[in-house]
Structures are given as C-alpha cells and as structure tokens.
Here is the input.
Amino acid sequence: MAGMLPGRDPEFTRPRLLFRRCVESGQAFIIWWLAALWVSLMFPAMSDTLPISPLWVANALAYGSVLARGIRLVPAFALAALLWNIARGDDLVGILVGTGGFLVVMLFVAGFSRWLQHHIEQDHARRLLRVPIIATLSACLFTALGVWQFAHGIPSGELLTGLWLSEVTSVLLFTPLAQQWMEGRGHPLRGRHGLRPLGLALAAWSLVATLVLVALWLFGNSEEVPQRWLPYLALTIPILAVYLLPGGLPRLVVPIFVLAWTAVDLRLYTVAGGILDEPAMLNGQMIIFTATLIGFLAIESVHSYDLANRQLDAARLHDGLTGLYNDLGLTEQLRHRREGDAAPSLHALIGVQVPDIDDLATLTGLDEAHGIERRITETIRHCVCSREGMGARLQPGLFALLIPIKPQGTAPASLAERLCDDLQAAENAGRLPVARLGLRVALIEGIMPAHRGHLTSLLLMACQRAGKQERERFYHHKDAPNLLIDSHRDALDWAGRLRDALAGNTAHGDFDLFAQPILQHDLPEIHRAEILIRWRLPDGSLMGPDTFLGIAENFGLMPRIDEWVLGRALSLVADHPARQHLTEIAINLSGSSLENASFPDTLATLLDRHDWPPNQLCLEITETMLIQDTHLARHNVQAIHDLGVRLAIDDFGTGHATFAYLKQYPVEELKIDGSFIRDITTSAFDREVVRTTCALAELLDARVVAEFVETQAQQDALADLGVGYLQGYAIAHPMPLITYLDSL
Here is the structure.
C-alpha cells in the first residue's frame, strides 16, 4: 500500500538468489513439458501429414512467463522444447529449426514487450497490442515450420488456415493467463466483484456453457448443425465469463471452456475412419477463434477499466507528490480502525510542518519546494517502519504519522524524538535545511476513529503551538485531542465575533477603549495616557486583550483592529472638550500593521480627518512581535517618523531584537517591561537593567517609561535611577477613555 511507510526488506545474498533462479527455471521446464504431454494426449493430430495438435498450450505458457519474468526463463523453455523435439523423433535439422524458431519467438516476446514499455504510454494500448502481435508472429512461423517439417506435398488451404487459427487461439488464451499467474497478481477468484457473487455467476455461466456443449455433442451427427445457430450461441460464453465472474477468473475459465469446446469440435468434424473433415473443421475453428478473440478483447478491456478505477481510487486516497496517504486516505484508514479490530483503537499523531510553504515555493521555485518535501518524506520513511505507522501528506508542507499505540510497542514520544533527531541529522548532512525552514514537530496522543474528520485541523493547531516554542519548535499535546478541537472552535467563534464587531454588528459584543495615565515625574500636571482595548460582552462585563488579540493575529485581523482603535481613539479625544488638556496619547501597533504597505497613508488620513497633531501621538511596537518583512517595516517606520508621529518600544528588554530595533528604527521612547520593575527595590540585577536602559535612552535622546509601577517604594527607586515617566496601578488604574477625558 503506497501510504504505508516501507520497512527495510532483507536483501537476498548471491547464493540464495542463484538458487531461487535455478528453482524458477526448473519449474518452467516442468510446466512446459506437462502442458505438452497433456495436450498431446488430449487432442489427436490434425492430420496424418501434419501431426500437430489443434491447440499447443506449452508455447503460449512460455510466452506469458517471459512477459512476466523476463528473458531469464528463455533458456529453460528452449531446453524443454529441444528435448521434446528429440523425444518425438524428429530429424536433426527439424530439431534445430523447430527449437530455433521457438527461441526466436521468445526473444522477440521479451524485446517487443520492452519496446512497447518505452514507446507506448497507455497501458491499455500496450495490452491490446502485445499478445495479438505475438500470436500472429508465432502462428505464421510455426505454420510455416509445420508445413516444411511434416507435410508431404502442399496441405489443403483449410488445413493450413486451421493450423494458423489454432496457434493464434492458443496464444490469445494461455499467454495472458500465464502472465497473470507469474506476475503474482493474486488469486483469480479475487477481482472487481470480490467473492460474494461467485456462486450465482458460476452457476449461470456453467449452465449456459454446459447446455451449448451438450447440444453440440448430442446433435453432432446432424449435417445441419454446423450451419445452424447452435454453435454460434457459444460466442456469448466469453462475454458472460468476463462480465459475470470476478476480475481474474475469466482468464482461467475461458481457456478451460475453449479446451472442452475444441474436443467437441474435433468429434463433430471427424468422419468415419478418423478422417478429419477439413472444410467443416475450418468452420468450427473459425468460430472458436472468433470466440477467443472476443474473449481476449473483452477481458483486456474490462481489466483496463478495473485498473483505471483502481488507479483513480489510489489517486483519490494518496498524495501524487510523495506516494503517502492524503488527508482523505488517512481519514479512511482511521475510519476502519474500529473497536474490536485487530488493530488498536488508540493512536498517536505526529506532525511535521514546513511553515509558509507557499512563500518558500515563490522564493525558491516550486521544484525546489517539492524537492524539500520529498526529502522530508524520505526522512520520515527512514525513521518509522511499516509496522509502526502510516504516513500522509495532508496538504502542502504538512506531514503526518498515524502511530498505533500498543502496550509492547514503541512509545510515540520516542518516535517523535527519533524523528526530530533524524531531521537534525539530515540538516547536518546537508540534505535538509531544518533551521532555515523552521520545521515544526507536534505530537498528539489519544487519537481515536471519532477524530478522523479533524486530523488536519488537530495537526495545524498543534504545529501552530510548536511554532511558538522559541528553541525546539516541538509541541507535545498530552491532554485529550478534543481540547485542541474545542480551542479551535473557540478561536473560530472569536474570529466571527471580531469580524462582526468590525463590520458594526455588536450583537455578540464590541470593542471598548480604556485609558491608563502616564505620569511625568517632574511635571505631574502634564497629562499623557496609553489607550488600551477591551472587549465588552452584551451583559456589560469586560474581557482583557489577551483573550482575543492572539486570535485576531492568527486570523489576520490585527490591521483592521489597529485602524479601528486609531480611528475611534482620535475621534473621541479630538471631539472631547478636554482635548486641550491632553498632551499625548499612546497606542499599541501590531507587527501586521507595521508590515502593511498602506498603513502610513491610513495613519495620515486619520490624523488629518480628526485634526490631531502628529507629535501628540505615540505608537508603541512590542519588542517581541514577529516581523516577517523587515524591509517594509523599516520603510513604514520611517514614513511614520516623517509624519511627526513618535515611536516607542514596548516591553523593552524582553525580546531578542533589543539592539537591532534601536539601530534600525528612530525610537523616541523606551518602555521598560514590568518584569524588571516588580523587584527593583530588592534586585540589584533589575536596577542595573533599568540604569543601563536609561543610559541608552540618554544616548538616543529618548524618554524612558516604567510600566507596572505599584508601590511608592518603586517610584522612589525609579526616580533615583533617572526614570522620568511612570505607569501602573500606583499612578492610576485603567479606566474607560470617556471617564478619563471627563476627569481632565
């Protein structure tokens, strides 16, 4: 099965392989001789001058075996034919010519099959061309050899035609049958219908076939029978066999029927004294050939139809790029794992994600992106064998391993750890740039058949959490998978509420603006405030921004929310009578807005619309925010600075981009994170961080704001260190923006 992860098959050693080939050649030799003996005993010679049976199964079986196994069986069949000709008592020239002709046809079979494989793309066309052309060549050659070797004088045209038709019929019947068995396509009773309708189909076929043959046998002495309709009724038998029996069975049943029919045919057309009525025989042989040709074409057409359906079904369940299962295929596999099955009902799901695969394909080219995905597939296959799990490519850049949890099996956490190690080893070997790609690995345990409709969603959510891990980028979800599903549903519900609120529909809640004053230590009469966003439920209760801003970021809603906050805040402040007492307002800006090419124009429009001085607006960017397009971000920051709007770095000191931000952006304010303020009265390290920040700010000619100031002792310590601006509960709690403006 293509979706299974193949294990490491043991390779045959050379002596074992040689022994296997010898056994195979010996079997081919024995099969050819048994077929030749059986046909010789069952069917008499066509005439005294041509001691050749009307069907020669042995050669046809040899052709099918060569088609299936290749040229390596040719010596065994050639030796069998050589010994047969010697045992029959042919002269030396006849032995050499007959064996040589058979050898030439077998070599042609091998070469012609290889030529078709390289020059004819459609399997259906190859199947319809291969055997008929082989049959035609073999019939022409052996008819000529038979006449040259055995006939005394020129045989009748009827006898020659009958001999040619017999050889063609033999190849059409038995070559595909031998090929089917030698290729190991499974038992012929298994096919498109399965075993369920076998009894009814066999009964119907056997009844019609038996009635036809019995009728021919009983009325064989009647001179009118060959010209009447009864023999031609047998032409329907191959069609019935093809369309009623399971897929592989007609290739076995039709030859058996034709063998029996040939025996009846010989009896019908053998007159007194054992002399064959050649014209009558030709009539019967033509009917047999026609039935055989119809059966061959019908069988191959139905087989091609079944093969196309199987290929479509495989394409429906498997990924075309890697050969692993796709989302539907993995879902179907899990759907069949029911309670009480031999397979365990509990599984673990391991995921590997290449984030931003579309951007990667755009930058490096689709072929390179596909090459990376194939190398990830190879790593997964090397890591996990077929007994441990099923692999899938659920969507571009997202791979999955469905691992059955067994009491004595490998622990899923160990497999996930092994996979991480193999990915890292692939990077060390230069095959896979894991660090540059930012690969994420996630493990979810407790997967059951009931979760089959959520596999992709579960992995996407788990890989998203893995992406938030700063170092390993690995997330192990140890709780029930339903919690991830519930979390995702909550996120979808929140995204819907946020979109509704942005569109003006506040039935499920709305945004609300609060303000928290910022105290200037040496000029307390100066009024500055930071604008904060909250979510107000229909019952009037409030929810903090941590509840919904992360969801808004994931769903790409932050630019719209930032624009709403800016527009709403400027509108309320600009229209309020206390506007003249407010020196500055500060508003947080998301990384998504900073990467939005149209944001500077939007900001300029809002400032102009509400007639708000740009130097009285400060935009705060968080140091830990994720900025993908740094070039565009720098361009926008410069455009914001050119407007006259101030720029501040929020949560200063907690991220990795501290000094990079200071170098790249025209910063005018540093807001020290509260984690350095909480213990400033007791922690020498925190005091040193604050002192260093103040020194940097002085170098940059920037202001320093301390957040989360909650006690008078903290205020005194910060004043001693030179921090000029304070914000926190010790100064004022956040309050509705309108309330704050009214207080001014």
Q: What stands out?
A: Residues 17-184 form a domain with the Arp2/3 complex 21 kDa subunit ARPC3 fold (CATH 1.10.1760). The chain has four domains: 17-184, 186-317, 327-478, 507-743.
